[in-house]
Amino acid sequence: MPDMSRSVKMRSWYLFSDLSKILSMAAQPISSEQMRCGIEEAKSRIAENWHEVRASVADAARAAGRDADSVRIVGVAKYVDATITQWLVDAGCVELGENRPQSLIEKSGVLDGPIRWHQIGHLQRNKVRRLLSAEPVIHSVDSQRLLDEIHCEASQQARSVDVLIEVNVSDEDAKTGLPIEQAEAVLRQLVESRDSQSGEPGARIIGLMAMAGWGTTPDQAQRQFAKLRGLRDQLQTAVGIPLPELSMGMSGDYPAAIAEGATLVRIGSSLFSGVLP
Ligand SMILES: *Cc1c(COP(=O)(O)O)cnc(C)c1O
């Protein structure tokens, strides 16, 4: 007989984790005065969290029969201000993700270190021009118009910009990302009409990104990640370009994503546990 109490408990846990996700996305980044602990403790918590997450990512890679360094960790710093983000960089995390382009631009102007920036949240076309000066990888390309804008702006600024196409693999209407059926057309248009995959200025598509839907169990999330990998394999063959990067997996589901081939995991809350209020 199935254990009903466990499944009810699980379901309410997912509901709770969704609520906290929604709240944390809406909230302003916290400053050091708002932390749950003092400054020195926060610095060491963040460093410990970073080492734990790295070890756990490496374990998940090995369990999947993959090289530990085939998975890069993008530290998602949207929860905290620039000062606290710097402590994460000092701990060794130099690939940083931001949800809002404005935060990425601001932090890129003040943080210190060999940082590679990643724009992971929704991007409006009117923010592209300023964003490109931080030379980010853009994970969240979810329309032909946005891709066109990035390509055009990058060409004008004589930059080569790595982008990922965000795909909706969760069957939810409200989710961000291109419908699966449109991904091929978007790829083809860039590849065929512009010949921009060669390192010339412009947008260069390096892979696909997805988020598991709200309220998915780890098993459901893993099936969605498998779907993204399958789509990637299919598009590589159909369009004839390499798509080596798969950006999938967050704090709650990265082992499943790594099992399905993630090369970039976007991890935020686990890195700040014990620090966020
Ligand atoms: C916030 C966010 C993450 C990180 O989520 P955590 O659960 O805090 O690890 C990853 N990807 C995107 C697009 C996000 O907005």
UniProtKB/TrEMBL annotation:
Cofactor(s) of this protein: pyridoxal 5'-phosphate
Gene3D superfamilies assigned to the protein according to its UniProt record, in alphabetical order: Alanine racemase
Alphabetized UniProt keyword annotations: Pyridoxal phosphate
Modified positions (N6-(pyridoxal phosphate)lysine) in chain numbering: 78
Keyword GTP-binding: no
Boundaries of every Alanine racemase N-terminal domain copy: 48-272
Highest taxon of the lineage: Bacteria
Segments crossing the lipid bilayer: none
Alphabetized Pfam families for the sequence: Ala_racemase_N (PF01168)
Any one GO molecular function term: pyridoxal phosphate binding
InterPro entries in alphabetical order: Ala_racemase_N, PLP-binding_barrel, PyrdxlP_homeostasis
Functional description taken from the UniProt entry: Pyridoxal 5'-phosphate (PLP)-binding protein, which is involved in PLP homeostasis.
Family that this chain belongs to: Belongs to the pyridoxal phosphate-binding protein YggS/PROSC family.
The protein's name in its UniProt record: Pyridoxal phosphate homeostasis protein
